[in-house]
Design a protein that fits this description.
The chain is α+β, with helices and mostly antiparallel strands. The protein contains three helices and six strands. It has one domain: Aspartate Aminotransferase, domain 1 (Alpha-Beta Complex).
């Protein structure tokens, strides 16, 4: 999974927009002025941070070595996924959708 593929999927959600509030190194994707995804630019493999339900976040970290506590984010509510292929593209899409839904529901 490359940055463009992930970004295109993220931006396909209604009202999703890309901003750079932390500088050019971190792409921040927002809806309703709230972050739901971040990508560290220029990193290979892609590092994608997403909001997550706390229990699911913990379960994913225990099950996958490529799922880490959110980098520079609330570790209870955010995971950073290192997209090495350990998670399938469908799983990544599901987690992006979950993050978006958590933010828009709140």
């Amino acid at each position: 999974m490359d940055h463009k593929t992930v970004e295109d999927y993220i931006l396909s959600f209604p009202n999703a927009k890309l901003e750079y509030p932390f500088g050019e190194g971190v792409a921040v994707y927002k809806v309703q002025d709230k972050m739901f995804a971040l990508i560290a630019e220029g990193k290979e493999p892609v590092r994608l941070s997403l909001k997550c339900d706390p229990l699911l976040a913990k379960t994913l970290r225990e099950e996958y070595e490529s799922v880490l506590p959110g980098y520079h984010l609330n570790k209870k509510h955010w995971n950073t996924l290192i997209l090495t292929g350990q998670l399938s593209w469908e799983q990544v899409q599901d987690l992006i959708r979950l993050s978006y839904n958590l933010v828009t529901a709140g």
